[in-house]
Design goal:
By secondary structure, the protein is mainly alpha-helical. Helix content is 68%, strand content 7%. A hairpin with a 2-residue loop joins strand 1 and strand 2.
Length: 99
């Protein structure tokens, strides 16, 4: 029971750190709006990379020989946010069918 409780506490602390870092990163979105695409992509990439590294540093034991971290959550959010921030206009439209 003590191992389970330690795992839950470690996972909760990992989640709280990721939420805090996401809040800090979200404060920069206003600054990124007026920047060129390359600067936006670099800033978001560096921010999400820092979040993933911190998540890996705060890994938690899930069992003998297994560790867990939440970097996959960071990667999923980075993919969604990066696609919305740095995509070309109309890049996701389907081509028209010929008449």
């Amino acid at each position: 029971m003590a191992e389970f409780l330690a795992t839950v506490i470690a996972a909760a602390s990992n989640i709280l750190v990721l939420l805090g870092m996401a809040f800090i990163l979200s404060r920069g979105f206003g600054w990124l709006r007026g920047r060129p695409k390359l600067q936006r992509a670099a800033a978001l990439g560096a921010g999400f990379a820092a979040m993933a590294i911190v998540s890996m540093k705060m890994s938690f034991p899930m069992g003998p020989g297994f560790i867990g971290d939440l970097r996959n959550v960071v990667l999923a959010v980075a993919a969604i946010r990066g696609a919305a921030c740095c995509r070309r206009p109309n890049s996701f439209r389907l081509p028209r069918r010929p008449a």
